[in-house]
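tool_call: predict_structure(chain=1)
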Amino acid sequence: MDHNPLLLDGAGAASDETGREERKPGGWKSMPFIIGNEAFERVATYGLTANFIVYLVEQYGMRQMAAANLCNIFSGTSNAAPLLGAFVSDAYWGRFRTLAYASVTTFLGMVVLTLTAAVPQLRPPVDEESGQPLGPSGAHLAILFLSLALLVLGAGGVRPCSLPFGVDQFDRSTDQGRRGLNSFFNWYYSISTAATVVAMTAVVYIQDSVSWPLGFGIPTALMLLAIIFFFAGIRLYVFVPPEGSVFSGVVQVLVAAFRKRKLRLPAPNDAAEQETLLYGNHARKSTVVMKLPLTLQFRFLNKAAIVCEGDMKEDGRSADPWKLCSVQQIEEVKCLTRIVPIWASGIICFVALTQQWTLAALQSMKMDRHLGPSFQIPPGSLGIICLMAIVLFIPVYDQILVPMATSITGVEGGITLLQRQGAGMAIAILSMVVAGLVEKKRRDSALAHGGADGSSPLSAMWLAPQLCLMGVAEAFNAVGQVEFYNRQFPEHMQTLAGSLFHCSLAGASYLSSFLIAFVQKRTGGPGRASWLDDDINVGRVDYYYYLIAALGVGNLLYFMVCAHLYRYKGTPEPEDGCKDIKAVL
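tool_result:
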């Protein structure tokens, strides 16, 4: 891609550096390869990670809470890596090369992890008397961490680039291209969800009931197929070259504003007049960008566009972007600044989701997981209840709830994007309260009627209500976040927008690890068990659920303040000259 890169012009056609037309976006012709790659990649990665905590406990002899912490750290790092992947993609490699390198890296990580299951010497030895693994040595952990590091690097490239690369294949300047793009989003998310369901049912069942080597080997083979599918469509793809890192543009605005901090803004209370007196060049080379009006919010940044002697070239461009930035650049930085507080509020909501997935699997290991006389649900497959709740609720939401809400509020979509996120947070709090009540019932049942292994005769289906509520919460909050970021981020920051959502999941995983360590330290001690004891029948996981619910209440109040103060992208300054922030919901 470094040689003769293809550029997308305003009409959506691709051209080389000389302007000669080379290739037009293929649209649906290239979709089987991109969506096929995504489907196989989803089955592969979720097939490995959905049941990972069970693998660590049963095959590596890890303590349950240590395994839960490792899963949280791995999940957090995997979701933080897309931020680095987005930077590399936008600044250096472009989406295709980033996807290609990341896919191969993911495959190598899966090969190493599969070898840990297939080669006994790569796992801890088993005690002959108890039949339990003795615990991993430093060498065993080194090989395990090598596989996880490769998987993290792969996730960092695949997650922020997969969806935007598919979007690049459609000509958004035509009605046909826009219709195809809408269908692409539907098919992309539908097939991704279906692939996740397959991974959490068929693949997890093979791991639990047949063998771990086969259960890991199948996803690894599917990842190889995903790579083959991806490269098979190379002659159809349009390659959009990197435009440079968005982070450098943000820093340029901050530096220019700091350098000119002592200057006075012209027309300080009139945004429209001030905009005419500032540097307004906002052209970009390969992206159709929505022009943003100047606002008085974070007005100190506006000083970066004050034109001083020697700041401009003869052709009207900035002579030094570290001294003079355009109004467009400044408003794009403001968009990012406004989004960060909203983004931070999503982390606590995802803590509830993270803990539901991890602790529900551990709870189910001490419950009756039978469906019928012979079939037993694998612990790692319980999350399918949450996914099915999402799949079933979204059509109800779109077809029934949205029209009803629209007729009442008059707002397109029934409620705003921020209100949708807030509703998800409220339902997540409710799910944690229900989870606490169910856990108390499970624990009481285990203590009163548990067998020798401390298992409760209570059916694992008692966990279904909390998981269903969590699915509905995710349908509101997570989907609302994705749409919010894609609509509110500037057009050339779409890769960053995708990575920011994963960073919310990363923050939730890291915060979950901190909460587990904090609760274990503060609630445990000489003569008393921690709430999160390795024996959950001795611990009080229900209290931990209530703690997360209390944090969720505080987070919801914080979010309501942020939402009240938020101004949507492109909203012009109020005519009355009101300073700073206008409440927009």
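agent: The beta strands are 7-8, 14-15, 21-23, 370-371, 375-376. Proceeding to next step.
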